[in-house]
Amino acid sequence: MTAVQFPSLAEVFPGLVTEITELLVDEDARLARTIQHLRFYGRCTCTPTCPVLLTAPIGSPSPRIIELERDGDTIALLQFDPVGRSVTGIEVLDGRDLS
């Protein structure tokens, strides 16, 4: 299956994508523009309740992380590829329903 065959993250989680984009726009406008174009490869399957949404194929390395906060609370962690150019996963920490 190619990346184009996976739905966009914005189609599956439009509210989350909008919020992440808004939180990033002042910090990193270039990165904020890429969020709308991420593909959704499914949820991480390491545990039944893992809050990580995959935006790259399973097993993609993600050694870099950006913490996103709203009103002092961490809502998500963006995981990046080794060179820090593309988001490989989003760990949603604010308790929203991801089903």
Task: Give a written overview of the molecule.
The protein has helices at 9-12, 14-25, 29-35, and strands at 42-43, 52-54, 64-70, 73-80, 87-92. It is globular, with a radius of gyration of 13 Å. The chain has one domain (3-92). 23% of the residues lie in helices and 26% in strands. It starts with 8 loop residues before the first helix and ends in a 7-residue tail after the last strand. Strands 1-2-5-4-3 form a 5-stranded antiparallel β-sheet, covered by helices on one side. With 99 residues, the chain is an alpha+beta fold. Helix 2 (14-25) packs antiparallel against helix 3 (29-35).
Topology:
Layout: H1 9-12, H2 14-25, H3 29-35, E1 42-43, E2 52-54, E3 64-70, E4 73-80, E5 87-92
Antiparallel strand pairs: 1-2, 2-5, 3-4, 4-5
* Discrete helix count: 3
List low-pLDDT spans: none
Total E-strand runs: 5
Radius of gyration, whole Å? 13 Å
Order of helices and strands: HHHEEEEE
Mean pLDDT: 90
Which structural class should the secondary elements be placed in? alpha+beta
Query: What number of structural domains do the residues give?
Result: 1
Amino- and carboxy-terminal Cα gap = 23 Å
Q: Please state roughly what percent of the residues sit in beta strands, choosing from under 5%, 5-15%, 15-25%, 25-35%, 35-45% or over 45%.
A: 25-35%
Backbone shape: globular
The largest sheet has its strands arranged as 1-2-5-4-3
**Portion in helices:** 10-25%
How is the biggest beta sheet arranged? 5 strands, antiparallel
